[in-house]
Amino acid sequence: MAAVCDSDSPVSVISARLTGATHMACSRTLGLLHLFLVWLHVSGQRPEAPGDNGGWGLDSSLHDEGHCSVDVRDVNSITHAEFIREYAYTKPVILRGLSDNTRFRLLCTKANLLRKYSAKTVRLSTANTHSYRKVDVQFEEFVKFLLNPQSEDTLGSDTLYFFGDNNFTEWHSLFEEYTSPSYHLPYTSPAYSFGIAGPGTGVPFHWHGPGYSEVIYGRKRWFLYPPEEAPEFHPNQTTLYWVTHSYPTLELWNRPLECTIRPGEVLYFPDRWWHATLNLDTSVFISTFLG
Ligand SMILES: *[C@@H]1O[C@H](CO)[C@@H](O)[C@H](O)[C@H]1NC(C)=O
Ligand SMILES: *[C@@H]1O[C@H](CO)[C@@H](O)[C@H](O)[C@H]1NC(C)=O
User: Which residues have CB under 6 Å of ligand 1?
Assistant: First the structure.
């Protein structure tokens, strides 16, 4: 039985325990494991594991992450000064390991957000370029009924999206746990927008000031064009429609910069760069606008 205890697999250890096959050499391991399981049960929070999506679920149909043509830099390989010189005013970059939001991530599990914000009202916007319509719903209603996978033929003007318009009074205790990307731009101050969206949703091309986007759960694919290269798109069509119908017809020279970001990475976009996003999974995300 000692062989079972030597195994790295917690499953075999658990099954050893369940069959009563304990052994003196195992008891310490099993004791620790038991404490760990009790902790899991009490805290109701699973430790972060690869593929852990905080209870928000993964989507099976949108696995294609596409290729990545945006520079990806580990934060240990680039200083703040180099970021300013090479990217801040010239091109997008993805920074890895810039901040540790492990704690914020735990607060953003589906169970934790529902526990705390179920009865709160959230303001949804239509996912078209000019966001015409706003709809107020209870957070619980949004999570249970509106966080659906996007279908390709739904118009952006008919797709409700929870992003921005956050009530910073009610969500204050959550947002204050967020560690924003530490590489700021001179003469700007950060403003946050928090959102949750279903797989296949995303905002179509638009532009504004510079900022960062970070996914807390789920993967988000980004498409970017420089300010002087306005992409062709219909403002009421979703990104999913654009990706399926317009993107494949683009000439190579006309392709956007693109990449899929995952938790632990932040994407920086400079001032007035055109961008569109596509959530590959149910995503919890936060943007830091540098105004
Ligand atoms: C934000 O929430 C507070 C407290 O519930 C409420 O009084 C206030 O009207 C809300 N603000 C907005 C803009 O909805
Ligand atoms: C987009 O949809 C909105 C809302 O349905 C509508 O008012 C607007 O005219 C549409 N824009 C275009 C360019 O079709």
Answer: 167, 169-170
Substitution site in 118, 123, 169, 171 for ligand 1 pocket (most atoms within 8 Å of beta carbon): 169
What is this structure's pTM? 0.81
Q: Is 155 in the pocket of ligand 2 (CB under 6 A)?
A: no
H or E stretch including 3?
helix 2-6
Q: Are strands 265-269 and 93-96 parallel, antiparallel or unpaired?
A: antiparallel
Continuous segment of H or E residues that includes residue 139: helix 139-141
CB 200 within 8 A of CB 62: yes
The residue among 204, 274, 200 whose CA lies nearest residue 239 is 204
Q: Are 211 and 275 in contact (CB under 8 A)?
A: no
- Which one-letter DSSP state was computed for residue 264? T
Residue 123 CA, closest ligand 1 atom number: 14
Nearest ligand (C-alpha, residue 122): 1
Residue 136 has pLDDT above 80, yes or no: yes
Fold of 53-290: Jelly Rolls (2.60.120)
- Cα gap 224→108, rounded to integer Å: 28
pLDDT, one tens digit per residue, over 83-106 is 999 999 999 999 999 999 999 999
The amino acid at 93: V
